[in-house]
Structures are given as C-alpha cells and as structure tokens.
Amino acid sequence: MLQSPDVQLREMSAFALGRLAQDAHNQAGIAHSGGLMPLLKLLDSKNGSLQHNAAFALYGLADNEDNVSDFIRVGGIQKLQEGEFIVQATKDCVAKTLKRLEEKINGCVLSHLLHLMRDSEKAFQRRVALALAHLCSPDDQRKIFIDHHGLDLLIGLLGSSSPKQQLDGAVALWKLANKAMTLSPIDAAPPSPTPQVYLGEQYVNNSSVSDVTFLVEGLDLLIGLLGSSSPKQQLDGAVALWKLANKAMTLSPIDAAPPSPTPQVYLGEQYVNNSSVSDVTFLVEGKRFYAHRICLLASSDAFRAMFDGGYREKDARDIEIPNIRWEVFELMMRSNNLFIYTGSVDVTLHIAQDLLRAADQYLLEGLKRLCEYTIAQDISLENVSSMYELSEAFNAISLRHACILFILEQFDRLSARPGHSHLIQRVMPEIHSYFVKALTKTNSRIQP
C-alpha cells in the first residue's frame, strides 16, 4: 500500500503505520517486514501531507534500538539528513528522529554497529562509518574511528571515483572534526604568547650578555632608576631589579616553596630600534637595526644560540644578516620587539606571509602562531592549495589544519574547481594524521 500509485492510499497507509509505530510492540515488526525503505522513499514526495505522515512513522520506528542498524543499512540516516522537506513540522519531526537515533548509539547498539563495520560488505561498512560520524558521542570517537578503523573508511571515500561518495566522506569528516574539538585549532585568535625574559641563573652577573654592571647599595636606589628621565637608566633599573628578584627567590628553600610567577619585563615601544640604549646592532643590506641582547635571548632558540653558543656573533657588537631582505627583517624585528617589549603585537594580513617565513627561520614560535592565524582568515577556494603549500614549506601546523578543515567544509564547492582531485590526494595523509591526533587527544581529556 505504501507503494501504491494512489497518492491518497499511500498517505493513509503512512498515517496508519505512524500510529502503529507509537506502540513499542509494533516497531521492530514494521521495520523487519520491509516498512523502512518505502517510508524513506515517501520523503521524496512533493505532497506535504504524505511526506509528513512518512516522517512521523519513521520517528516512531527510531524509538526501537533494534531498528538502528536497519536505518543505517538502507541509507536512512543520509536520507533524513539530505531530504528537502516542505513544511516546518516535517523538518522538526526529522530532526527529532535523528536525535532519537543519536541517543541509541551506545552500549549494545554501538557494539553491534562496530561488528558490522568490521565484518560486513564494504558498502555497508562505509554506511556505518558515515552514520557514526554524525551520530556518535565524542566520548566514543576514538573507539570507533581509531581502534576500529572507521577513520580509514571515511578517508577512503575521499579517494573514491564517485563524487557523491567523496562529498559524503568530506561532510562526515567535517562533522567529526567539529565534535572532536570545542574549537577548531584556528577558530579563535591565539593569545599573544606571554613575552618572558627568563634567562636562568647562569645569566645572573654574567658579563658575556650583560648590558649593565652594578653594586646593590640599596633597593631605593634601584627603584629610583625606574623613575629616571633617562631611558637607559630605566632599562638598567628594570634589569637589575629582575636579577635581584631571581636571586632573592633562591635564598631559602622554604621561602621559595611555591614557584614564583614567570618574571616579565615589558620595556616599552620606545626601545624598539633605539640606538641610545642598544647593545647589539644588526646590519642588513647596509642598514642598521638596534636591539637588546637580553630581550632577544628570551625571544627564541635561534637568538639564544647566536648569543650564548659558540658562534662568532656571541661577542660581536655588529652582526651582519646576509640572507634576508631589509624590509622583511625590519618587519620581523619590529613585530617581534613590539611583542617582547610591550606584550602584544598586531599582525596584519599584508605582512603576515613575509613574517611567517622570517619567524620560522628565527624560531619565533609566538610570532609564527599569530601569523598563521592571520593568514588562515584569508583562506579561500582560490588559494587553499597555495596556502597548504605555504604551511608545508614552513611547518605551519595550525595553518595546515585550518586548510584541512576548510577543504572538508567547502568540499562540495571545491570539487567543482579544476585540480581538486590532486589536492585531495595530496592532503589525505595529513587528514589521517590530523584526526588520529585530534581523536586521541579528545579521548585522553575525558579519561578520569
């Protein structure tokens, strides 16, 4: 009767099944007698009443956990997700049906589905993986997609020759990514990494990197330097007080019991490229950039190696930088020093890529993360491939992950563009690595 050419008869049959499906004793029988597929097909009807009656009947059948695997087997989950429904009441009913099915994905139902995902024919395995990506709890993601290899099934769909399967896989992976993380890696701007001038005890009273030598005659004298009109005296006072504080914390094991907050020295923008208080000068394309060793030591391993290692730059007053253009070096140093000296920096889009290259070269991880975030805001269908190449060239992991999420989210539109197949094949290994890490991290966070 559900397949009768008579629309009125189909409508009445769907209505009757909807009423019968409200009784738990009838739910499994209707599904096992072949009622699911005809009801799902009626969702394609252009008759609003017929469509709604079918949706209501399916809602009743979803209440029985024995029917969950049957919904998945006949493609019911995708049918419910992708249907075009005429009236709002039908849309609401379908949403409640999906929610009801989602609530069943646990315990024995989940175990049965995992068994089917492992031992069934390939097409059904994929349907199970697709359904679980949309319906499973975040708590079960590692079990399903890592331990039981559901991730391999989804990524395999991206490499399919069928555009529909590719899209289904991308949508499922996008859903999985959103469940796995409360925020995608680059949805929110990373805070400016806390600038720290924390050099360790070996730098206390160390002439090799010192820009001031002093005898402590009294705390008032040092504090008085901070109020001086001389920028050089202000800097000297700040550095001396910082060293004094670090020494004081080591005097008594009892007094030092709670670890002290990481000391921070913000020197102010007026010290950026200021020759009057500089103790090191960089020469780039014949131009000079004035800086402070103590700040650069705290900013990156590259500068730390330059000034504290066995390199000739260790004791040099002037250091030549041969492998970078002045414009790029100045941007890097100004941005980096504003961050070190003031605690914040504004990285704009027009300089972000140049800064990323320089930040990667000089191991300025805080600046690099800010650049990645700024660049990620500009990812588009036109440039996602080149953005991904940029992320690979400079090991920009957050930017790479942003590209992956963009590709999954915009897969339908991206697939209409030339060259998309090559891009998908290229990123598939990284997609796998991304999800293994994300799902493993999610699972570790929820462990007691």
Automatic annotation (TrEMBL):
<dbReference type="Pfam" id="PF00651">
    <property type="entry name" value="BTB"/>
</dbReference>
<feature type="domain" description="BTB">
    <location>
        <begin position="278"/>
        <end position="349"/>
    </location>
</feature>
<feature type="repeat" description="ARM">
    <location>
        <begin position="34"/>
        <end position="76"/>
    </location>
</feature>
<keyword id="KW-0677">Repeat</keyword>
<dbReference type="GO" id="GO:0012505">
    <property type="term" value="C:endomembrane system"/>
</dbReference>
<dbReference type="InterPro" id="IPR016024">
    <property type="entry name" value="ARM-type_fold"/>
</dbReference>
<dbReference type="InterPro" id="IPR044282">
    <property type="entry name" value="ABAP1/ARIA"/>
</dbReference>
<protein>
    <recommendedName>
        <fullName>BTB domain-containing protein</fullName>
    </recommendedName>
</protein>
<dbReference type="InterPro" id="IPR011333">
    <property type="entry name" value="SKP1/BTB/POZ_sf"/>
</dbReference>
<comment type="pathway">
    <text>Protein modification; protein ubiquitination.</text>
</comment>
<dbReference type="InterPro" id="IPR000210">
    <property type="entry name" value="BTB/POZ_dom"/>
</dbReference>
<dbReference type="InterPro" id="IPR011989">
    <property type="entry name" value="ARM-like"/>
</dbReference>
<dbReference type="InterPro" id="IPR000225">
    <property type="entry name" value="Armadillo"/>
</dbReference>
